[in-house]
Every structure is written in structure tokens, then in C-alpha cells.
């Protein structure tokens, strides 16, 4: 419940705060409007009672004909465009005169009106006063009993109808919705820059070489953050370029001494010493080559292109078949789809996975797959698999499932790490899982 009321994202929190402020502002605004309207009604009712006291004094001393003449004059005098007064003298209690077309009973006036009708403290004549609804309009009504027992009834009609009041309330609601929509769009636009910043930083963390420069737009704080991250990106890329130059020089400089050592080892005596020297030389050369390959798998200058994955896996399977190696293509699940990727990086990734399966299972099966999370390539085998608690660790450099130092059985621990890096450069993700029937399934997954 707490998470629902207070979102976890900055965008959600800002929208909730903006909504709360708008609701609070609108509530105060509406309450102020109602208060002012109520005060105006009270003032009009007080003014009507004060005028009624004068008319009451005038009409009390007149006969019926004079009273009718005075009422006619008053009706024509107070018939205005924005409001009007209706006058009538009825012989009985004015309940029946007031009630037709009204909603709710007449509200009895407070003591203030009694003071107005009898300002010198004399006897207060019977009277009624209050607000009422007459049809679609809201009005004020006041009735005072004359000395002859009849009642003087005065009704003040407003020009504005109740429908107009409802329209005014609707304008308030529409104003609230418009302001909230504008504020929501502004907040969404500003926080979208934060989202771009987060996605760009995450892409940079996964693959600094392929990540695009962060857009330096938005408010000042976001621009400065993007600029700082871009400067950091530049320094990291410079370090990577320096590393690549160092590895290139190391690869070139080590080739000659390693070759020289191998030539010297071939002339060594006796034979068992020569064999051991040659074997260690081959291991050193393989280790250096794989280490350089691991380092080079972290970056690439290859451009992404749109590629048909079905044709790609068929060509890889054909290459292995021509070499007489046990690599098959699952044609029953084969279907065509295209992705934007780096072909050389993807081929190196797939080749490493196939070589791993051939080494530990003697065979490999390639298949395409598609599910709700994405699509990609699977490399399956029927080998011993990997313990569940090591499925993620085997993707780390130098980690081997077998604890021995025998590289013929345990390998160097770099093949899957290189495959993972190549998958990342290809725009995919490498996932490992054990098959229910036994063996390992390695998935190169492209997000749909």
C-alpha cells in the first residue's frame, strides 16, 4: 500500500506532488469562492431585510388600493436586467405562496433581521427570510406580517441560473484538468531526459566502446550530469584505445621470442625434456593468444548491419560439416528473422560455444528460438552440463569448473568469457542453462 501511494520513480513522485499541490490549490480556491458567495448572499439578504423594513413601514399605514399602487411602483422600479424583485400581499401564512416551484423549506432569519425590522426595540412582527430555489434560479425570499394580518412577500430573483452555477463548477474542474495535463507533460518531458541518461549510462557500463554519446539536453543539472558522463566516457575510451595499442604491441613483440624458444626446444636433448619444453611452449603461446583475444573481445570497430540469422547459422553449420565435425542444425525449428548485429563478433561468439560443446560433449546442435522475451540462437549439447551454482561464474575470465590445473581437461577458462563479450558486442545477451534431458544449452538472446 505504501508503494502504491508513494511511487519509487522520481517521475511518479513529482506527478503525485504536483497532483497534491493542484488539488490543494483548487480546494482552497473553491472554498474561497463558496465563502465569498455565501457572504454575498448573506449581504443581499441583510440588504433586502433593511429595505423590507422601510417598505413595511410605508405599507402598514395605507389601504389596499394604495398598497397595490405602491407595490406596482416598486415592481417596476426594481425590475433590472441582472436581478428583479417581486412583491405580493397574501391574506394567509405565505408557506403556500413560497413553496410552489421551490426546493427546501424557508430558512428563518437570524436576530439581525429582527433588529432591522424593529430597530428601536419595539415588537418584532412575524417574518420569514432565507434562500430558496425557484425553478432553475436561486433567490432570496422574505415575508413580513402586516398589522391587518396579511403578509408582505418579497422575492429577489438572480439572473444566473443553477445551470450556470454548475457550468461555473465545470469550468473549475476543466481548469484543474488542463493545468494538471500541462504540468504532467512538462514533468514527463523533463524526467524523460533522466530516463535517457539512465539508459545511456547503463549501455556505457555494459559496453563502453559501442555506447553512444549521451545527449546534453534538458535542464541545467541534467546537462551538466550528461557532460560529466561524456567526459568520463572519453577518458575510458582513451584508456581502452591505449590498452588496445599495448596489446597489439605485446602480440607483435611476443611472437618472435616465443618462436625462438620453440626452435630451441626442438633441439633440446634428451627427448622427454624436449617434449616437455615443447608442450609448455605451446601452452604459453595458447595462453598468450587467448589472453590477447579476451582483451580484444572487449572492443571492436566493426559496424552493425542488418543480417538474416537463419542464413547465418546455416553457413556456420555448413563450415563445421565440411570439416567433418559433429555439428547439426535443428531444421524443424528453423525460421527466418533479421537483427541488427556485428556478423564477425556474432560468428566468434557462436564458434566459441560450438567448440565448447564439441570439447565436452563431442557434438553440438544449433537451433533458432523465439519467445515472449525475444529471439536468438541456441547451442545445445548432451555433455555433463554445469552445476547450477556455477552457471554465471563460468562466464567470468579464468574460471574453470574443474579445479585441476590440467588444461587438457579444464581449459584456460577464457572461452565462455570471450563468447559473452562477443555476444555483448553483437547486441545480444549470453545465457546458460542445463537441459532437462542432460547437457548444456547456451542462448544468444536478442531482445525483441
Strand and helix map with partners:
Blueprint: H1 2-5, H2 10-60, H3 64-77, E1 83-90, H4 95-98, H5 111-117, E2 127-134, E3 137-145, E4 151-161, H6 162-206, H7 220-266, H8 271-296, E5 305-308, H9 309-322, E6 327-329, E7 338-341, H10 343-361, E8 364-371, E9 374-380, H11 407-410, H12 415-425, E10 429-434, E11 440-447
What does this structure look like?
The chain is α+β, with helices and mostly antiparallel strands. The chain has three domains: 2-168, no CATH class; 220-296; 305-447, Heat Shock Protein 90, CATH 3.30.565. The protein is 55% helix and 17% strand. The strands form three sheets. The chain has a five-stranded mixed sheet. A four-stranded antiparallel sheet has the order 1-4-3-2. A two-stranded antiparallel ribbon has the order 5-7. A hairpin with a 2-residue loop joins β2 (127-134) and β3.
Throw out a few tags for this protein.
448 residues; alpha+beta; Heat Shock Protein 90; 4-stranded antiparallel β-sheet; 12 helices
Structure summary:
With 448 residues, the protein is an alpha+beta fold.
Mean pLDDT: 77
Number of domains: 3
Strand order of the largest sheet: 6-8-9-11-10
Question: How far apart are the first and last residues' alpha carbons, in Å?
Answer: 33 Å
- Can you tell me the overall shape? rod-shaped
Number of helices: 12
Amino acid at each position: 500500500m505504501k508503494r502504491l501511494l508513494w511511487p519509487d520513480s522520481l517521475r511518479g513522485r513529482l506527478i503525485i506532488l504536483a497532483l497534491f499541490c493542484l488539488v490543494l490549490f483548487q480546494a482552497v480556491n473553491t472554498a474561497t469562492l463558496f465563502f465569498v458567495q455565501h457572504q454575498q448572499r448573506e449581504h443581499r439578504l441583510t440588504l433586502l431585510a433593511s429595505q423590507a423594513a422601510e417598505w413595511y413601514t410605508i405599507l402598514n399605514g395605507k389601504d389596499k388600493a394604495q398598497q397595490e399602487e405602491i407595490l406596482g411602483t416598486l415592481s417596476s422600479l426594481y425590475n433590472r436586467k441582472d436581478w428583479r424583485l417581486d412583491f405580493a400581499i397574501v391574506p394567509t401564512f405565505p408557506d403556500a405562496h413560497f413553496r410552489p416551484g421551490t426546493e427546501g423549506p424557508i430558512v428563518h432569519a437570524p436576530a439581525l433581521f429582527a433588529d432591522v425590522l424593529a430597530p428601536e426595540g419595539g415588537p418584532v412582527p412575524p417574518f420569514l427570510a432565507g434562500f430558496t430555489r425557484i425553478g432553475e434560479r436561486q433567490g432570496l425570499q422574505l415575508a413580513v406580517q402586516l398589522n391587518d394580518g396579511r403578509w408582505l412577500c418579497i422575492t429577489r430573483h438572480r439572473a444566473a441560473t443553477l445551470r450556470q452555477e454548475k457550468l461555473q463548477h465545470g469550468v473549475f474542474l476543466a481548469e484543474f484538468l488542463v493545468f494538471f495535463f500541462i504540468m504532467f507533460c512538462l514533468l514527463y518531458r523533463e524526467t524523460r531526459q533522466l530516463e535517457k541518461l539512465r539508459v545511456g549510462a547503463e549501455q556505457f557500463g555494459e559496453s563502453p566502446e559501442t555506447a553512444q554519446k549521451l545527449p546534453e539536453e534538458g535542464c541545467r543539472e541534467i546537462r551538466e550530469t550528461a557532460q560529466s558522463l561524456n567526459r568520463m566516457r572519453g577518458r575510458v575510451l582513451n584508456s581502452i584505445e591505449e590498452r588496445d595499442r599495448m596489446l597489439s604491441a605485446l602480440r607483435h613483440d611476443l611472437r618472435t621470442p616465443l618462436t625462438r624458444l620453440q626452435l630451441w626446444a626442438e633441439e633440446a636433448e634428451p627427448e622427454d625434456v624436449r617434449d616437455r619444453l615443447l608442450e609448455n611452449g605451446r601452452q604459453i603461446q595458447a595462453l598468450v593468444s587467448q589472453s590477447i583475444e579476451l582483451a580484444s573481445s572487449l572492443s571492436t570497430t566493426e559496424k552493425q548491419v542488418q543480417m538474416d540469422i537463419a542464413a547465418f547459422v546455416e553457413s556456420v553449420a555448413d563450415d563445421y560439416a565440411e570439416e567433418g565435425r559433429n555439428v547439426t542444425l535443428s531444421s524443424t525449428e528453423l525460421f527466418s528473422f533479421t537483427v541488427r548485429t556485428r556478423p564477425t563478433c556474432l560468428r566468434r561468439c557462436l564458434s566459441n560455444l560450438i567448440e565448447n560443446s564439441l570439447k565436452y560433449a563431442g557434438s553440438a546442435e544449433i537451433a533458432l528460438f523465439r519467445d515472449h522475451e525475444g529471439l536468438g540462437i541456441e547451442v545445445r549439447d548432451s555433455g555433463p552440463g554445469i552445476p547450477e551454482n556455477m552457471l554465471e561464474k563460468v562466464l567470468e575470465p579464468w574460471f574453470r569448473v574443474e579445479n585441476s590445473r590440467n588444461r587438457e581437461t579444464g581449459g584456460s577458462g577464457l572461452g565462455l568469457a570471450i563468447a559473452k563479450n562477443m555476444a555483448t558486442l553483437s547486441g545480444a545477451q549470453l545465457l546458460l542453462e542445463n537441459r532437462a534431458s542432460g547437457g548444456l544449452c547456451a542462448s544468444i538472446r536478442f531482445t525483441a
